[in-house]
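Predicting holo structure, adenosine-5'-triphosphate bound.
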Amino acid sequence: MLTVRALALAYGAITAVRGIDLDVGSGELVAVIGANGAGKTTTLKGIAGAMPVRHGEIVFDGEDIARLPVHERVRRGVCLVPEGRGIFARLTVAENLDMGAYLRRDAHGVRADLARCYGLFPRLAERRGQAAGTLSGGEQQMLAIGRALMSRPRLLLLDEPHARLAPIVSRLIFDTIRTVANEQVSILLIEQNARAALELATRAYVMESGRIALSGAASALLASDAVRCAYLGE
Ligand SMILES: Nc1ncnc2c1ncn2[C@@H]1O[C@H](COP(=O)(O)OP(=O)(O)OP(=O)(O)O)[C@@H](O)[C@H]1O
Ligand SMILES: [Mg+2]
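Done. Tokens:
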């Protein structure tokens, strides 16, 4: 479904991603792990359209989307949940969720997805009239994921959904990611917690200094000495 080839991304003169190849199959959950500054967030931004592509291809369902603006990628089903969540603090929970569906014209489907979202996160249903900026960190993460789901994504790009969350909330987010993946949404997940990522994903890529250093089945990476030593602290 997603085929990235020779993707290069830069901030001015600083090259952050140096020609990477990466694939996500239909309904697959793929993780990207790597040290701070390796280029993980930049990679997701490039795929989502949040920054211009310097070089390479991003083929989604047979079409190169590398030069399309963000909304055209969202329309095709590519949706980013950014690091730091990017919710609208002054809008209510319900208004934020509506924003997620802004490109959709199927009012019926939107209503059904809203009910489903509140089903996934009952906490959001209770707080639907509350300003998003006053939610707890974990609730804001739920809202960010809920808002992305309101766009009916076919490929969800998740940048560290567990950052700064208490274990119990973190588990809820993990369960939700699993539920969403089971509904045939493909997921590309960045995680600082390499072990958690490798336990959740079927395949993974390890990034180092803007390149893919290793890739393979998550179970194989979990068992690899290089990964255990460098990323699992063993
Ligand atoms: N807005 C920016 N301007 C200039 N350089 C940037 C910018 N954002 C990121 N970089 C640089 O690009 C490189 C990759 O950053 P990126 O945020 O993709 O890393 P990351 O793998 O997501 O790291 P982390 O695990 O800390 O989130 C880093 O060297 C970083 O300093
Ligand atoms: Mg990052």
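The longest helix spans residues 167-182.
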